[in-house]
Write a structure and sequence with these properties.
The protein is an alpha+beta fold and 419 residues long. Helices cover 44% and strands 14% of the residues. The structure holds zinc ion (ZN). Zinc ion binds next to loops.
Length: 419
């Protein structure tokens, strides 16, 4: 029995939008078509969640109790259900009979489903929902599919304003890039800031917006939430590893791979402090931890006349450009060799590969996809990533961050020694 919302038309992808681009039909294999199901369902769940967030104050959770048959479920959910229905049919199994049953299935790890989807071993252990929350896998899958989840929206807005502030406070392209680096680094280094720090930022980036105030204020308003403080000192509980704020009762930091411990920080304020929005924290701050670590480790190991380092070249074509300089003529404009590194900290290696595109400008002699150690050490992760990357982007080497640093230092020594 099929629920009336489900059309068993496997080609019903209307409304799935950019998914067509992510999964070009010529590239669809069994594995990618099962990932398409995962992505469609996750995209649908994210859209349902976004609708519910809009509808009531119960932020950030999906409640199936409130899901009634009168709800018009999003197109990606229906398309995902239809494809899944066919997968069950082909395997001679009984498909979930309605949306509520499929919701329950989304809480179950894929490995326990009756139908065995062709997913990587890492992903088969995951489910789409952890309780009422989107799982890490579902969030990454949904990011391939939709652009209108609240967190995505804040992230995109923040990047747009960041680029505008960088450009408004510069006269040359080099200055725009320098401003971009400084502002992006600010967002990675500061999850919570005082109004005094905002004041300093406004002095550093004074170019006014439409209201006559420094436009950088819009970046703060987009990326952070303002909290009033009746006292001049604010004590914030945060992780001493990644800097993320922690709830008062929660003991451990939930940032992937972070081994930090709870700590407190005191902020001196005029009358307010600002805490980063969820989307900015997840996609700019958390993702930036690896990017910043790569840069800082290499900078500490190699002097400026040996390698020139450019974070986020071309305003974020990739994460780090490494230019090896000629010892006889250490001019960054005439490097001996250029390497590019893109740092990726994703739960699902297969979804990472499916969504991965290298931007070829500026040009690099060697290209690396750099994994943080906590992902690289995960059993099967690198193998799954390399398998899924095959045939998508040739010439990108998957490497862990420690190996990458060693490789750069070794190459710098070779070039320095005239080898
Ligand atoms: Zn942490």
């Amino acid at each position: 029995m099929i629920h009336s919302n489900v059309s068993p038309d496997a080609d019903d992808l209307s409304g799935a939008g950019s998914l067509q681009e992510t999964f070009p039909s010529s590239e669809i294999t069994n594995t990618t078509s099962d990932y398409l199901i995962v992505t469609l369902l996750a995209t649908g769940l994210a859209a349902i969640k976004a609708n519910q967030v809009q509808r009531d104050a119960d932020r950030g959770v999906i409640s199936t109790r409130r899901l009634s048959r009168s709800d018009l479920l999003p197109a990606p959910w229906r398309a995902g259900f239809a494809r899944l229905w066919w997968r069950f049919q082909q395997a001679g199994l009984t498909a979930p009979e309605d949306d509520l049953t499929l919701f329950e299935l989304c809480r179950t790890p894929f490995v326990e489903w009756d139908v065995q989807l062709e997913l990587s071993a890492t992903d088969r252990e995951a489910s789409l929902l952890d309780g009422d929350e989107l799982s890490e896998l579902a969030r990454e899958a949904a990011k391939l599919g939709v652009r209108d989840v609240e967190a995505d929206f804040v992230e995109e807005q923040s990047f747009a304003v960041l680029k505008a502030v960088a450009a408004m406070n510069a006269t040359t392209d080099d200055q725009v890039q320098a401003n971009y680096e400084l502002l992006r680094r600010f967002l990675i280094d500061h999850t919570v800031i005082s109004d005094k720090q905002v004041r300093e930022l406004m002095r550093r980036f004074p170019a006014p917006g439409a209201n006559g105030q420094p436009y950088v204020q819009s970046l703060i308003d987009t990326a952070y939430e303002r909290h009033h403080s009746p006292t001049p000192t604010v004590t914030v509980r945060c992780c001493d590893g990644c800097g993320n704020p922690l709830p008062v009762d929660g003991a451990r930091c939930g940032t992937a791979g972070c081994a930090g411990a709870p700590a407190t920080r005191e902020l001196r304020v005029f009358d307010a402090y600002f805490a980063q929005h969820r989307g900015v924290r997840r996609y700019i701050h958390d993702a930036g931890l690896l990017e910043v670590r790569l840069h800082d480790t290499l900078r500490a190991a190699l002097p400026e006349h040996v390698v020139f380092l450019q974070p986020w070249p071309g305003r974020d074509a990739f994460d780090l450009l490494v230019a090896f300089l000629d010892p006889a003529d250490p001019d960054p404009r005439r490097p001996v060799e250029v390497w590019g590194a893109d740092g990726k900290d994703h739960a699902s290696p297969s979804l990472l590969a499916i969504g991965f595109r290298w931007k070829h400008h500026p040009r690099c002699d060697r290209r690396f996809l750099v994994l943080p150690m906590h992902r690289a050490r995960q059993l099967g992760y690198v193998r799954d990533l390399e398998t899924e990357l095959e045939g998508r982007d040739r010439g990108v080497k998957v490497i862990n961050e420690e190996e990458f640093v060693r490789l750069v230092i070794a190459r710098a020594q070779q070039i320095g020694g005239g080898a």
